[in-house]
Fold this sequence. Notes:
Elements: H1 2-12, H2 17-20, E1 24-28, E2 33-38, H3 51-70, E3 74-85, E4 93-103, E5 107-115, E6 121-133
Antiparallel strand pairs: 1-2, 2-4, 3-6, 4-5, 5-6
Amino acid sequence: TPQATADWINEAGAQTLAGRLGITFVEASVDRLVATMPVAGNHQLYGMLHGGASVTLAESLGSIGAALHAGDGHIAVGVDINATHHRAVRSGLVTGVATPLALGRSTATYEVVITDETGQRVCTSRITCALRGRRRRA
């Protein structure tokens, strides 16, 4: 289920960058991923949410979606990401929602919309991942 998948991602990612930024997956399926991130601790010197934190949230959502699309025995590797920052956020939680734009055999592209607690758009991002079969380690 999307919630069980989100719980597994949160546990597996606790010691990753996403975990350190406080990113919490709420829902995770190929067709829709949702995660939250606190502004506190993820701001820049002026007290606003750091653009790099927004991009990390977007990449976390899109790459996990691509990996779910790729399926067992495959990995998703980000090859392109862009972000447009629309407004500043100084407190609270932001929420990212990722939806697929194109799901192919060798690439997957997601749009990620990040909003503040009032529902106002903070950032729009697009991420494309290459889908590859896992390589065995020597």
